[in-house]
Amino acid sequence: MTLDTLKSPAEKIESKRSLGFSDDDSIEITISPNGGACFGVVRAIKLGQQAAAKGKEASAPVYSFGSIVHNPKTIRELEEQGVKTVEDSAQITSGTVILRSHGVRREIEKDFKSRGVQIIDATCPLVKKPQKIAASLGSRGYFLVLVGDANHPEVKGVLSYFGSDNYVVTYKPEDIDKIPSEVTKVGVVAQTTIEVKVLNTIVEQCQKRFSEVAVYNTICDATSVRQEEAEILAKKADVLIVVGGKNSSNTNKLVKICKQYQPATYLIEDIGEIEVGWFDGKKKIGVTGGASTPQEYVDEAGEKIAAMISASLS
Ligand code: F3S
Prior knowledge:
This protein has 314 residues and is an alpha/beta fold. Helices cover 40% and strands 18% of the residues. The protein has helices at residues 39-58, 72-81, 106-114, 125-139, 153-162, 196-209, 221-236, 249-261, 295-313, and strands at 15-17, 28-31, 62-65, 83-86, 96-99, 118-121, 143-147, 167-170, 185-190, 212-216, 239-243, 265-268, 284-289. Strands 1-2-13-11-12 form a 5-stranded parallel β-sheet, with helices on both faces. Strands 4-3-5-6 form a 4-stranded parallel β-sheet. Strands 8-7-9-10 form a 4-stranded parallel β-sheet, with helices on both faces. The relative contact order is 0.17. Residues 1-9 have low confidence and may be disordered. Bound molecules: FE3-S4 cluster. FE3-S4 cluster (F3S) binds at residues 38-41, 101, 124, 126-127, 192, 220, 222-223, 291.
């Protein structure tokens, strides 16, 4: 940070939640108002913490099948409290299992039940919605167009509720043309974290081809609100910090959106990764976080940046 960017070298820099910056020449750190964990993630973490406490009391094991949320730091903290993350469901044969916020495949839940494992369902209610719609479309003979990433656990979970092979998972309109010609009615369902414009493009393509198209916009607002705010901030900021798991799809989408408008965008999982050199000569600093990033991590990042800049100026 160069001293001439400030009126007073000793000026204390603070971070605040807002969606803009003032027009003057001061250094400002603005945190996106909704940057940070969505209600589904907050709920899942709370359920994990409660399960850990109960497990400790009863001296019974507590597992999470896959990461409860896509944030490695949160997973480490939960592990310290007693929640063991296990990727192979067969390894969980007793105690309690927490089902992650993105949901799990139906048959896996059934297996846990058959083995007498107690289930704490931390599946986000907004992920339950596409699961239920997929089950209903399957029972009514629809061809399912699931707009999303075939490798994402949420998508695999939703498909397991559909119950037949009459589906395609895609976000490319050209894949709609490959749907077998005998199909007449399709149901379009979205992965909760995809961009609205991707869903709209697929819906348009379906409407060109099929006489009956049932559309279910199951995109979660939490994601789109964070994406819209990130875009506004990125257009105004000199540098952007996105806080979140490097394995989190919604966090990576935020980074992608921010980079379109502000190439000086950095993704951090932990505040220890922040480098003071990123802010050299910058005055408008934006901070946001993915929907899987606990609020306090985003606030901590704002405070750390403020402290680093203040220290570099004194
Ligand atoms: Fe749920 Fe939306 Fe969060 S689906 S887990 S509230 S991003």
